[in-house]
């Protein structure tokens, strides 16, 4: 399920991934926040990190049970040439893979861990 970590409202069922000929793949309804400096970017990253899904396991007291993708888009405007350059960078923090035996997970934590492991496997299949 895809959630916007900067949005105060949670859409039931999460956000949907769409494809557009011009945009390529994108997340429909994802919040975009203009920033003027690094301090603003850092504040937003901390805000998003605070609302990520975490749980305690034997391996980690605050184990991330989710992946997080941060996209920073840069825009450079050359006023004298009436030219604009744009680029973007994606920062990805993946949830860690944990073996059930090592983590001691049961019930909900075990199901979450299984979903995390499956999503990491699927990501690995796509990247190859």
From TrEMBL:
SUPFAM superfamilies (alphabetical): P-loop containing nucleoside triphosphate hydrolases (SSF52540)
PROSITE patterns: KINESIN_MOTOR_1 (PS00411), KINESIN_MOTOR_2 (PS50067)
Keyword Nucleotide-binding assigned: yes
Assigned keywords, A-Z: ATP-binding, Nucleotide-binding
Entries under Pfam families matching the protein: Kinesin
InterPro entries assigned to the protein according to its UniProt record, in alphabetical order: Kinesin_motor_CS, Kinesin_motor_dom, Kinesin_motor_dom_sf, P-loop_NTPase
PANTHER family: STAR-RELATED LIPID TRANSFER PROTEIN 9 (PTHR47117)
Name of this protein: Kinesin motor domain-containing protein
Source organism per UniProt: Gulo gulo
Taxonomic lineage: Eukaryota, Metazoa, Chordata, Craniata, Vertebrata
């Amino acid at each position: 399920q895809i959630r916007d970590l900067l949005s105060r409202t949670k859409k039931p069922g999460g956000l949907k991934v769409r494809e557009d000929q011009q945009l390529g793949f994108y997340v429909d309804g994802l919040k975009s926040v203009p920033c003027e400096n690094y301090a603003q970017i850092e504040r937003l990253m901390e805000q998003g990190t605070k609302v990520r899904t975490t749980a305690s396991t034997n391996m980690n007291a605050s184990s991330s049970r989710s992946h997080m993708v941060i996209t920073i888009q840069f825009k450079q405007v050359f006023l004298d040439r009436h030219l604009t350059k744009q680029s973007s960078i994606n920062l990805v923090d993946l949830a860690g893979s944990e073996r059930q035996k090592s983590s001691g997970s049961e019930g909900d934590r075990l199901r979450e861990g299984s979903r995390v492991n499956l999503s990491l496997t699927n990501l690995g299949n796509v990247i190859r």
